[in-house]
């Protein structure tokens, strides 16, 4: 059942593939107008065209979340096109090779931090400003954390550090947004099956040094969880939500 007004505007970053694409599809099905952001224009436009054929409204805006000018251009487009933003799903992120940290090229560290922390901050900052100034005031920001926001995998220092930082940012947003009816959530996802995570079904390095395949879950369960949070009234929030493949090695890591 559609419980969301079609006039509500959502932004999904990293919308061209994986979790971002699944969430964008879920929001579109729930009646949201969805702005699709990501570095690659082609998959964004393909998704927007598919949405249009179904009578849904999506706008593709190629964006580099690590570039302040690109993020500003994205939010200028949202402001000019719709005049407001009701939801940001801050999803764009990258990982680094699983290497001992002394072997990890420094540019990989900076790439992960620039995308997963600075990119999340830049989008949250711009969304916060738009939500603060629009009428009616307020909105919702959902940050994509990770199981790694709680517990690392072997040789994942950049990714783990970035996701711990997202937790701090989410809490700061939740606190600072109170005065402006802006709420913030974090969804920590474990082993959602996408084209990027499919390799995990063939083997992942474990804490004991072995390599083992891991159970996965349908990415649509993540989309459903995000859509549930998005549909809540702003006086209600899910501050933190962990959704994971039930038998994945999280609780027993280490």
What can you see in these coordinates?
By secondary structure, the chain is α/β, with parallel strands linked by helices. It has one domain: NAD(P)-binding Rossmann-like Domain (Rossmann fold, 3-Layer(aba) Sandwich), CATH 3.40.50. The protein contains six helices and eleven strands. The strands form three sheets. The protein has a seven-stranded parallel β-sheet with strand order 3-2-1-4-5-6-11, sandwiched between helices. α4 runs parallel beside α5. The longest helix is centred in the middle third of the chain and has 28 residues. It is globular and about 55 Å long. The N terminus is likely disordered.
Entry keywords:
single chain, 254 residues, alpha/beta, Rossmann fold, seven-stranded parallel β-sheet, two-stranded parallel ribbon, disordered N terminus
Q: Give the DSSP E fraction (strand runs of 2 or more residues).
A: 15-25%
Distance between the termini: 42 Å
Number of E-type strands = 11
What's the rounded overall pLDDT mean?
A: 94
Please identify the structural class as seen in this structure.
alpha/beta
Total number of domains: 1
Q: What order do the SSEs take from the amino end to the carboxyl end, as H and E?
A: EHEHEHEHEHEEEEEHE
Adjacency order of strands in the biggest sheet: 3-2-1-4-5-6-11
Low-confidence stretches: 1-6
The main pleated sheet reads as: 7 strands, parallel
- The CATH topology name reads Rossmann fold
Apparent shape: globular
CATH class: Alpha Beta
